Amino acid sequence: MSTPQTSETEPRPPSPSWAAPPQVRTHRWGLGAFLFAEGVFVLTSVVLAAFFGSPGTASIVLMLVLPTVLAGLVAVTITVVRGNGPRLDFGLQWRWSDVTTGLAIGGVGLVTTTVATALWVHWAGPGATSTVSSVLDGVRLPPVLAVLVFLHIWLIAPVCEELLYRGLLWGAMERMRWSQLNVFLLSTALFAIGHLEPSRTWLLLIIAVPIGLARMVTGRLTASVVAHQVNNFLPAVGVLLLSLGWMPA
């Protein structure tokens, strides 16, 4: 039995005047697609941790990279099989206006994130770190692997995470005809919670706000990917220096 489609003539929830109008959704995936992709991420992480036990340098990198990349590939596959592809369903297309918007909003977000991180470290203590930093604490990676982790944190992970949260999740909620504000709020909250770092949840909320705004303003994923990459640049540099032993943990 085919899934009934909502008529395009039905009124849609109002959006803020500065936000892009919500898309009329014709894809055939919903919240279950997001939960499935998120489940792939969690299951892959658990299986790799159980398989390697006490991992070496190469397996640590694999454990950091593979779950995120697999989840992103699952998201793209879902849009191809059950939708119109990532270009139409996610708005994942090259537009200079989206890039400049992502750079501008990401730059502002980088400032707020840096301030919020400094406050978090002050309140939580000097030993407070992210999950990635804690995994690499005391681990010295060969330069090639260190650069791979740097590129993953800076460029690859933001793409994969955006495919999940501002792609699958965002599109599923728009298909349910939620208002843009509610879509933004819930995707921001689930992004912060989905990192499974309770002590950093409020910090991740602050990080997620400008990224979600880039998605909301343009109506496309490219801007939020760029904003996310801008936000991740300094943390990626810190992890690079840490993994090379050039900076204390």
From TrEMBL:
For this UniProt record, the keywords arranged alphabetically read as follows: Hydrolase, Membrane, Transmembrane, Transmembrane helix
Establish whether keyword Hydrolase is in the entry. yes
Q: Where is this region: Disordered?
A: 1-21
Which regions span the lipid bilayer?
A: 31-52, 58-81, 102-123, 143-165, 177-196, 202-218, 230-247
GO function term, MF aspect, one = hydrolase activity
Limits of the CAAX prenyl protease 2/Lysostaphin resistance protein A-like domain: 145-234
Q: Which InterPro entries match?
A: Rce1/LyrA-like_dom
Enzyme Commission number: 3.4.-.-
**Designated name of the protein:** CPBP family intramembrane glutamic endopeptidase
Species for this entry: Saccharopolyspora griseoalba
Upper taxonomic lineage: Bacteria, Bacillati, Actinomycetota, Actinomycetes, Pseudonocardiales
